[in-house]
User: Fold these one by one.
Assistant:
Number 1:
Amino acid sequence: MISVIVPLYNAEKTVVNALNSIKAQTIGTENFEIIIINDGSTDKSKMIVESYQKENPEIDIKFVEQPNGGVSKARNTGLKLAKGSYIALLDADDEWLPEKIERQLAYLQNGNLKIDFLATRRNGNEILLPYKVINNLAEITFSKLLIRNEAQPSTVVFKRKILENTGFFNDDQRHAEDLNYWMKISQNNTMYILNESLLIADGGKRTFGVSGLSANLSAMEEGFQRNIKEMYAAKRINFIRYIFLKLFYKAKYLLLLSRTFYYKRKNTN
């Protein structure tokens, strides 16, 4: 069984599409449990999900409510309830393509490959350096994650053993929380990206600077800085590398600011 963790916050316009994309999976809904965590939504999200449950009684949907605590806390609530041998993440404003889970399971269940964590491409984007595709897979390592995160959460499926050897997201981290968790996972698990675009993320918009949590570039930069500070404290990077990465992420933040400004100006002209 695959446990799908869906954090929900004010997603009344998109959550049905997200759920329908699970329903449309080629492996069949009987293979899923869907755990939706309503993170203090103030719109009609709750009513819409409850209506969806009634309309689709054949689908195992669990609906949990909690006060707003952020995406990490919401995901952790779902992860602690999950019973599946595999865990999949899906944000309420994203949509899987129908063959996504079937394609990922083919790799995860291949004993010769020994993959524990598998992401995919999204929105037709290419896999960029420092990642390199070999035999339709790009390996994720700790060193590569320090430079670039190519694993968008809604693309990810991983084996249950990761919960046992890694634990959970930082409860109080709202930005760059996925990168933080991936870096922790990388210590004891094999991680890859499948070179197939199997997710429509946020309606196909650009990754940064448009909407959602990633639109807050300053908060994202703070999240990155928190991550490398944590990795330094855990002795996974030395002091020289820590200082280099501090400067690297500051420069990356300034570049993203200028790119976002350019696109906004371009779209208004």
Note: Residues 35 and 258 are 38 Å apart (CA to CA).
Number 2:
Amino acid sequence: MKILITGIGGPTPKGIAKSIKEAYPNAYIVGVDANKFAPGHYCGFPFDKTYLVPNATTDETLYVEKMNDIIQKEAIQYAFVVPETEVLIWSKLKEESKMPCDSLIPNAKVATFIFDKLNVANILLEHCLTPLTLNITDYSIVNLEIIGSQLNYPYWVRVNKSAGAIGALKINSIDDIINWTKFNGNEDGLIASTYLPGKNYACKLLYKEGKLIVSAAAERIEYLLANAAPSKISGMCSRGKLINNIELFDSSVLALEIIFKKYKLPIEGMFTVDFKEDINGIPKITEINIRHVSFTNAFALAGVNFAEKTIEAFVYNKKINLGYQIFKEEYNFLRGVDNELIIFSENDIID
């Protein structure tokens, strides 16, 4: 079996590759990245071979040409496309029936819609699934004062179309948002949302042709290099917990059904629905990622291997309907800057 994984500069592709190797030790995995200093180029295992490719966002045509060349040369059977900007490009290729190989890619219109956090917030707000979210298009003091009065202080700002917690900050006063827009700039497109002070969750769901293959949930507790981010959220979870929470699953399914119904399409793709609890402890959706997340290998180590099930369903065309997975034990997981991801039992925690 020959598999391609894109974006090997980050932890998510490595986690996918390790999950594949755990299920299929003899799988041949090719990694690609536009950064010649991406760690995946030099780490060896779990990648058998790597290639430097053009940057997808700055030269889409060259990127597609290079990907076609690599896939043909290596006889790739299936691709895991990880960075969302690349998912968007592949979704357009899918719409034009020009994908260089098979891959679990959502419909182009749906992918573009979901990548915009404001779109997701607006369509789900009437179902009480998301916090009130406003688009900051006018950075005048008068308008910023209006936003503060609509959301009340504190509220939350971040970049609308981005990965992780880019541009995120808790706004406690009008001075905070004025200073933040001066520092961060406004060209990236900031959005403002009701502040959610509670726990942070992720629910992963894998769909094929409208059928749920497998789903599971986790809690994010601590973040890598948190003190380096003004928001204290770096976007990369360093400590978390695999959890059993059917409420997260139900809300995630409903959210995806609402979005795909808008386009009259069956749900298909790999999704990670992010939540934070409001002041009443009710989880609200903050965004939906059209990809795996960085601790995907934690699920695999606990017996829910999304990469394996993707291959079974899409490469081998097996009919799988595992549904929402309840863990026998809610394992903790840890990941450090230079340490491999590990999972361990509550009983193993040192007093």
Note: The first strand starts at residue 2 and ends at 6.
